[in-house]
Amino acid sequence: MQKYELVVVLNGNLEDEARSAAMERVYGYITRFGGTVANVDEWGKRKLAYEIQKMNEAFYYIVTFEAPLDAPAQIEDNIRIMEQVIRFLIVKQEA
After folding, report:
1. Of 4, 18, 33, 35, which shows the fewest CB atoms inside 10 Å?
2. Is residue 26 part of a domain?
3. Half-sphere CA count of 30, side-chain side, radius 13 A
């Protein structure tokens, strides 16, 4: 099991329920592919560095998780097709 960090940027126009449902789907993808969520850091609504899809603000989440080596690619494939997600990035943490 490797440690990873996932940054998810959600649409700034989402309501609280839609945001929690989107993040529950992300957590579901992590557990479905053999991972465990260790920590979630919700940064809240922040201004974007540049306009994305005609939006200037978005919700930021940092998720720390452990998963097998092949899991990040599968998680990315599923997050990529989520409409609520503007940007995301998974990086491997150094030991």
Report:
1. 18
2. yes
3. 25
SS3 for the chain is: CEEEEEEEEEECCCCHHHHHHHHHHHHHHHHHCCCEEEEEEEEEEEEEEEEECCEEEEEEEEEEEEECCCHHHHHHHHHHCCCCEEEEEEEECCC
| Residue 91 lies inside a defined structural domain of this protein | no
> 36: which 2 tokens?
């465990």
CA dist 29 and 56 (Å) reads 28
| This prediction's pTM | 0.90
Provide the number of structural domains found in the chain.
1
Terminal Cα-to-Cα distance of the chain (whole angstroms): 11
Per-residue confidence in pLDDT tens, the chain, 95 aa: 899 999 999 999 999 999 999 999 999 999 999 999 999 999 999 999 999 989 999 999 999 999 999 999 999 999 999 999 999 999 999 86
